[in-house]
Amino acid sequence: MPHDPADGVYATGGDWVHAMEVRGAQRFLFVSGTMGLDPRGNPGAGLAEQLDLIWSNLRAILASAGMTVDSVVRLTSYLRDPSCAEANAAARVAALGGRAVPTTAIVATTLVSDWLVEIEVIAAG
């Protein structure tokens, strides 16, 4: 259940929420940072391809636990550069079908310079 108060706190802009309450969940899935790598471990050629691969990888990881992107209740993005923020947000909104979840984006030096974005999620079911 999303909580996004309109009074006493800054506005979220609508594509994320301040908090997500999880009631009656019997399972939580904590997904490690997931990169835009293909099955051979090669990074996508650019930001758009890496974002597509990230969300494809996340769908596969969630499916292995009997979950879907609808199970995601929290998301953190690690961006190599602030210029990745807009495309990352658009990919998140599209992947989640417009469903807003608490999210944080952090600009950080990734372990490999070709990795432009890394995303970790928490899912509940």
Notes on the protein architecture:
With 125 residues, this protein is an alpha+beta fold. Strands 3-6-4-5 form a four-stranded mixed sheet, with helices on one face. It has a single domain (31-124), classed as RutC-like (60s Ribosomal Protein L30, Chain: A, 2-Layer Sandwich). α1 runs parallel beside α2 (85-95). The protein is globular and about 40 Å long. The protein has helices at 47-64, 85-95; strands at 2-3, 19-20, 28-35, 72-79, 103-107, 117-124.
Helix and strand layout, with pairings?
Blueprint: E1 2-3, E2 19-20, E3 28-35, H1 47-64, E4 72-79, H2 85-95, E5 103-107, E6 117-124
Parallel strand pairs: 4-5
Antiparallel strand pairs: 1-2, 3-6, 4-6
Helix pairs in contact: 1-2
List keywords for this structure.
single chain; four-stranded mixed sheet; two-stranded antiparallel sheet; alpha+beta; 60s Ribosomal Protein L30, Chain: A; 125 residues; 2 helices
Summarize the structure.
By secondary structure, the protein is of the alpha+beta class.
Number of helices: 2
User: Which structural class best describes the helix and strand composition?
Assistant: alpha+beta
> How would you describe the shape?
globular
Major sheet: size, sense and barrel closure? 4 strands, mixed
Query: How many angstroms separate the termini?
Result: 13 Å
Unreliable spans: none
